[in-house]
Each structure stands twice: as C-alpha cells, then as structure tokens.
Amino acid sequence: MPVDILEKAPSVEEVLREVSRIKTIVTDAVEDGVTSAMKALKQSREAAEDAIDETRRRVKQRPFEAMGVVFAAGILTGAMITWISSRRR
User: Which ranges of the chain would DSSP assign to H, the alpha helix?
Assistant: First the structure.
C-alpha cells in the first residue's frame, strides 16, 4: 500500500494548528519542570534549616562535646594542610 505524496498536502491551517499544539505541550512541560524545581528547592531549604536547628540544639545540650568536635576538626585540617604542603616540596 504505497502512500501517494501528492495525495493530500497539509494546509497552512493544519500546520499552524499542529505548531500551536506542540507549543502548548512544550510550554506545559517547561512549566511542570520549573514547578518541580521550585518544590525541590523549597524542600532542600527546609531540610537545611532543620539540620541547622538540630545542630544548634545539640551544641546547647552538650557544649563541651561540641568544642571537642571543633577542636578535633581543626587538628585534622591542620594535619592535612601540613601533609599536603610537605608533599609539594
């Protein structure tokens, strides 16, 4: 069943309708993507704020433990910097 190319050429109106339909589909997809991104950003921000609040609460409950953790992190950071700078020479 071969298709005759000259059988029926689409009219300008049909092409414009199809273009309009495709434009609507693309616009809806972009809007959905933006909405999803904004929702993910809001959830990430809330999670970060919750983590900060939890950290503040723990520091208030155990201030000496928090100082020990910060001290240990400083020692490790200093040791890593010293090790990296000594390897470059």
Answer: 12-61, 63-87
